[in-house]
């Protein structure tokens, strides 16, 4: 009887090992728990996990740059990133110019737009980015994606940082300075509505958001393909009408070493009917996560697993 029991134990162990190999784990680096990346990551993880096959988990992180670094170092299978940060990381430009970059970074899907906001005090007389010359303008902190966006947008309107009285502070600090009259404008790139801007719009004299459109916007889209047209709907912020601007995409990225079949299965699951319904119902940005939007403003190469799905769906040639 003893050999039979040993055989049974061996078979059970073999089955357990086989099951462990069959089930894969795929992590998504998101952002801070109070931001948009974290809840969206959780919704995606729930929607695409296939118990017994692929378990996807969302993990809090410091955001885009931290996620790209974690992918490059093998600490995370995937993560969310602004499309501009992903493009700079893959190509060695922008924030990554002269620094170690991540040429193996690959795209799973473009998710939803993060709008460029250029906020001014209501009644300030500033109607265009060009009117910011000589004004006190916050451009966000050094090393931020917003600062690099702001420089590119100013250049498209014929301005340099030295043409302004620039400050390098975060939007919440900028909002406080606008309230007390010591700042004229500030830049912010992020999902609308943004809390600091909504609060400012509802207090004091109110705000306007400058449009980014026409020749300047077209030139920016041509030189920086991660920019796309965007509209901030009327009354997204109290008292502010519809604004035409540009956006960068929030993107789901991975490394070129990620298993092609795993990425294919995850991408396919993301755009299944049940996942699409769950995402649209689960978060305000979920309705933007469609297969049509997924291939827009890519900026970096698609992972072969994702590319296979989009080709099958007729979205890529």
Structure description:
This protein has helices spanning 2-22, 37-48, 64-73, 83-91, 145-156, 171-179, 195-201, 214-223, 260-270, 273-282, 291-294, 304-312, and strands at 24-29, 54-59, 78-82, 105-121, 136-138, 165-167, 185-190, 207-209, 227-232, 243-255. It has 317 residues and is α/β, with parallel strands linked by helices.
How would you summarize this macromolecular structure in one to three sentences?
Helices cover 39% and strands 21% of the residues. It is an alpha/beta fold.
H/I helix tally: 12
Order of SSEs = HEHEHEHEEHEHEHEHEEHHHH
The count of β-strands is 10
Cα distance, first to last residue? 62 Å
CATH class of the largest domain: Alpha Beta
**Anisotropy-based shape:** globular
CATH topology of the largest domain: D-Maltodextrin-Binding Protein, domain 2
Major beta sheet summary: 10 strands, mixed
Report Rg: 22 Å
**How large is the share of residues in beta strands?**
15-25%
Q: How many structural units, i.e. domains?
A: 2
Structural class: alpha/beta
